[in-house]
Amino acid sequence: MPQDEQRLTTLIEQALELEEIDLNLFRSKTLWLPAGARGVFGGQVVGLALSAATRTVDPKYRVHSLHCYFLLPGDNTIPIIYRVNRSRDGKSYVTRHVTAEQRGKSIFTLTCSFQSGESSALEHQYPMPDVLPPEQLKSTEEKLQHMMDHPRVGVIPKLREQFKMRLEEPIPIDIRDCHGLQRARDLVRPPRKEPKQYLWMRAKGTLPDDPAFHNCVAAYCSDHYLLTTAALAHGLTSFSNPRLSMLASLDHAVWFHAPFRADEWLLYEMESSRTINGRGLCFGRIYTRDGRLVVSTAQEGVIRAESRSVILKQISNTPANESSKQEKAAKL
């Protein structure tokens, strides 16, 4: 295995690593603050909470659902303490409640249910959407590099710096959205779109064979891009006018339907059914490459916009001759 792949495998395992400090009590080791975010990445908080709950359950039980609330932003400079309450140990189902704490305050709560397994003749699912395969799509890193090299982005330092910071982040997940390269002008004047998007994702490197760990990785991944689906209907980005001023998860739910490997390609289908009162509601479905629906998700979050013209002024102040030279190159 190449050295960089081995390093990235270590990153995803470290992201979900917990230290057991007492019975039903766990502590995080590494926390990630995404560039420009208010707090620790929500998917990591969810994945760690599920990991803590799983470590208190007999391996014959597999998680089938989790429901959680984000109460306060997580601080990446201090560990998160996860306190597990063994709510119920039944014959077929087991329930756990997890509270995440920092500085004596609850920042997050999760309730999850585990099932011992049951056979049934009843089965149906939504069909998998028909999209381009991941091999024909650009990775997130390739798209970020493309935008950094774009002549229109180059004249706006703040834009270029944001792409640079994102490119330097140690993301352990390979993500490839199915919508092609973004045009530079869509950063500041994005069109309104149907609130629906698709992306392929997989953990970089080879993960351990433990199915419970793959569920934790999927919980980690399920927070990627889901809430941004609501912004598509309104033509909002961080640099548009009005701009997307706040996007923060309030609650999150995941249902695990069937086994899968998180280090193999998974298709994430996302849609938003409603935005109102400063909140957006989104739903997701995750498929294996052979078309099995293995995970479903739902999330509601704060979505706010405010008027701002700084970026538009910077673009309008670009010298006319420079702008005209770059216009053709700027079209993608």
From TrEMBL:
Q: Does the keyword Hydrolase apply?
A: yes
A GO BP term here is: acyl-CoA metabolic process
Which InterPro entries does this one have?
Acyl-CoA_hotdog, Acyl_CoA_thio, HotDog_dom_sf, TesB_ACOT8-like_N, TesB_C
Q: Where is the Acyl-CoA thioesterase 2 C-terminal domain?
A: 196-302
Is-annotated flag, keyword NADP?
no
**Record-linked Pfam families:** 4HBT_3, Acyl_CoA_thio
Specify the Acyl-CoA thioesterase-like N-terminal HotDog domain's residue ranges.
32-115
Protein name as annotated: Acyl-CoA thioesterase II
Q: Give one GO molecular function term.
A: fatty acyl-CoA hydrolase activity
Its keywords, alphabetically, are: Hydrolase, Lipid metabolism
Natural source organism? Powellomyces hirtus
